[in-house]
Amino acid sequence: MRGQESRSSSSCAACKLLKRRCSPDCIFAPHFPSNDPLKFAIVHKVFGASNVSKILIEVPIELREDAVNTLAFEADARLKDPVYGCFGAVVLLQRKMTELQHDLAIVRSRIAQFAAASSSAAAAAQSFTDFGHSSQSYCQGPLDHEPIGEFSQYL
Ligand SMILES: [Zn+2]
């Protein structure tokens, strides 16, 4: 009796929901642990346990976890959006991507405008600096007076 209890408590989520004994070679057990009953519940509700079992048998063992996660994702999407399912999510993401690409194009255009304005402002500043260098010979007077001002306190 105690052994049966421990065996039933170690049943996978699929076997618990289907109310059957979970065998050591249960195809659901590696992918539907008993601590996550919702995962199998939604997959079973949308695809049916028999179809999920047939799908998993056809999939190589190393890819079964990905297949189960894909089925769970698709089932969840189908329950949330019965008409479009995953396609609804794809369309929504494509629409967002188009909007973001549009925004990105606007931002890149503004960056290019600012870069052009900045380079023209830098060119103007450069020509102003060139003008300052050419007129430096006229401005040496104040530089010559500065040391005098510094020494003027000793006078
Ligand atoms: Zn099982």
TrEMBL record:
Residues 10-111 form the LOB domain. It comes from the Eukaryota. PROSITE patterns: LOB (PS50891). Transmembrane segments: none annotated. Pfam families: LOB. Belongs to the LOB domain-containing protein family. This is Putative LOB domain-containing protein. The lineage of its organism: Eukaryota, Viridiplantae, Streptophyta, Embryophyta, Tracheophyta.
